[in-house]
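Protein record

Derive C-alpha cells from sequence
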Amino acid sequence: MVYADDGPTALDVSRRSRPRLIVLSHFLPGLTGPEVLSELQAEPALAQARTLLLGGAGPHGKHAPSPAMTWCSDAWLPDDAREADIELAVRGLLGLADGSLPTVDEQEARARARVVVADLRLYLDAQLAEGRRTGTMPPRVSAYLAAARTDFLASQPGARLQDGALRVWDEEIVRALRERPAQA
C-alpha cells in the first residue's frame, strides 16, 4: 500500500506502482482527485486499475447516482462515509466479497510461465537464438513477455497482492528460457 499527500504525488506513485486499486480524495492539493483520475484514465498501463473517489459532490448533489456519472471513477462515496462503507466498496472493487485475498496457485503460475516460453520457442525461436548470441533480449521477445505477464496478472487478481506470486512467475520464465528445448 502506498500513500500520497497531494495530487501530483498520487499521479506519480500510481504511474510507477501500477496498483489494482486507487483511492482518491476529491480535495487533493495540487491536482484534485477528478483531475488525477482524468490523467490516469488516459494511460493504457493503468487501464485495469479500479478507482474509488471519496468526497466532493456527485453530479446531482451529495449522493451520486452511478459510478459512470462520478468523475469517471468506478465508485464514489461521500465525505462522511463510514469506515465500514469504505471497506465494503474496496472489497467490491477488488472482487473480495468476504475480504480475503485471492491466492495464486504456485503450480498454476509455473505451468502458465512454461506455456509462455513454449510459445516463444514456437513463434519467436530465431529472436531467442539471436538473444542468446548477443546476450540481449530482442524487442519482440520482451514485448511478448510483458504482454504475457500482464495477462497473468489480469487472470490472477491476487498476484499483485500476494508476496512472491510474481517472483514465482518470473523465476519460472527465466528457468524455462535457460533450459535446452527438447529436440523433435
DSSP finds seven helices and three strands in the chain. The chain has two domains: 7-94, 106-178.
